[in-house]
Amino acid sequence: MLELDELELYSHDRIGLVGDNGAGKSSLLKILNGEITISGAEIQRFGNFAYISQLDEMQVESVGDNTMLSRLGVSNVQSDTMSGGEETRAKIAATFSRQVHGIFADEPTSHLDRSGIDLLIGQLKAFDGAMLIISHDRYFLDEVVDKIWELKDGKITEYWGDYSEYLRQKEEEWSRQAAKYEEAMQERERLESAIEKQRKMARQVDSKQKGAKKSNESTGRLGHQKSTGSKQKKMYQAAKNMEKRLEALEEIEAPENVRSVRFRQSKALELHNKFPITADGLNVKFDDRILYDNASFTIPLGSKVAFIGENGAGKTTLLKMILDRAEGLTISPKAEIGYFEQTGYKFSTHQSVLAFMQEDCEYNVTEIRSVLASMGIGANDLQKDVCVLSDGEIIKLLLAKMLLGKYNILLMDEPGNYLDIKSIAALETMMKAYAGTIIFVSHDKNLVDNVVDIIYEIKDKKIVKVFERTS
So what's the pLDDT on residue 83? Predict the structure, then answer.
């Protein structure tokens, strides 16, 4: 639920809108663009705005400027045969072929390869109107925005600078909150000890008072009884005052932190082959199109390997060939392969989230909860049916299940798509900590740079090693 008293987008603003999945980012864009109306809310737009949506279907024929289509490489593509990347390029062409004063964009880099992202960055840098952009691509945000709006709990907090500067400011906030929380916990411990001490003293006075009462009743004296009663009341009152201070400390929240789990593999899943997957002189042809011509690569045991390349280069095809143990590849017979595909979220099951995760899993409930929590799936979601989760939540669930599954090699096709930035950061942490081998495809430059040991580029029908991390 959005709770915004006032929000202003100025003519030269270049803003990145960030927040968790489900925070309401896409809804806010649609409200500002006039696609969603809210009773009692007044929206004023001065000028024309273009809207790039990640979900709306695109017709190439609706783009009037063929020059822009050519520049983005989709002038000869038909609507019914467009790939995801080509559709995104067509949406961008439609946006920049119009005269507009502002652009709203919802994940405009989805399905784009690196060259497509660089083209979009160039177009946005040249655009002199207002921009409000939702994106999980941190490199892209650093290149095109100079302000961040963080949407959380229905409210927006503004941070000046690009995404990296936003992270720096958030780290400072985290450090301050951590220090404040630590101080509060120390004060809480002191107050709890003091409260117990006051109550213990009051009980001792109470015990003495009862003994004195019997003695005074026999002698008829009352002065001492009144004195100890007053002293006892002061002790109880002091304890109550400290309890009120203790209640105030309860409102100080612990800083958010990425939870982690120690990944492990059973003896049965151990691979002893130094290179569990290799290809030497790989040749692949579809109809009249040659995809790989005498291509070669090796995947070292336990490494994190990324395959990069333009849309249509054959990255997804290669992952599926490994999964199917296709001819031309040498794969260890003991390889147990898990596969995450881009459209894997399109399924339904009436199992609960926890039951789905526990199925064929050797990790305990605490470890499962920890991994899910780091991906933004909390304790309140564990008993929900998987079929009621959003697409983004199902993607998180499938990634977590695969990381905790009985595999020793994982194949991931664009694992960061549709995840919020916080979840991508958690995914990076888990991918690096994973005990087995990971082979993945991603156009997210930061994800690749932060995780990989080796990068192969698929280009001109060859597979060429372009990076290898040295220890």
Answer: 65
